[in-house]
Specification:
The chain has 116 residues and is mainly α. 72% of the residues lie in helices and 0% in strands. Belongs to the binding-protein-dependent transport system permease family.
C-alpha cells in the first residue's frame, strides 16, 4: 500500500500548481493584451487585469480591422493557414507511409540480434 506523506503531497501539489501557472500565464497575458488599446500595451507597466476594449478590438479584428492594417482580409488569412496546415499534414502522412513501408519491407541486419 502507498503511504500518504503530507509534506511530499504538498510539495508535489505546489510543483503542479507552479507548472499550471507557467503554462497558463502566457494565454492569460495574451487575452488581457487583446482587451487593451495599442497605447496601453506599449506603456511599460502593463496591467494584468483585462481592459475595457475587448469587444471593440475583436469586432475590429474580425470585421475588417485586419484588412485595414495588413491589407489582407481575415478570411484570406484563415484560408492560407488552412492550406498550409493541410499541406503539412498530408506531407507528414506521406513520409510516415514511406517510412512504415521501408521498415516493414526490408530486412535489416542487426549486430545485436540474439538469433545469431
Amino acid at each position: 500500500m502507498i503511504e500518504q506523506r503530507p509534506v511530499s503531497n504538498l510539495i508535489g501539489h505546489l510543483i503542479l500548481i507552479l507548472g499550471i501557472i507557467i503554462v497558463a500565464f502566457p494565454i492569460y497575458y495574451t487575452f488581457v493584451a487583446s482587451s487593451m488599446t495599442s497605447t496601453q500595451i506599449i506603456r511599460p507597466p502593463i496591467s494584468l487585469l483585462p481592459g475595457d476594449h475587448l469587444v471593440e478590438n475583436y469586432r475590429e479584428a474580425i470585421f475588417g480591422g485586419v484588412e485595414r492594417v495588413v491589407g489582407v482580409s481575415l478570411e484570406r488569412l484563415l484560408w492560407n493557414s488552412f492550406v498550409v496546415a493541410m499541406a503539412i499534414a498530408v506531407g507528414k502522412i506521406i513520409i510516415s507511409f514511406m517510412s512504415a513501408f521501408g521498415s516493414c519491407s526490408f530486412a535489416f541486419r542487426c549486430a545485436c540480434s540474439s538469433s545469431g
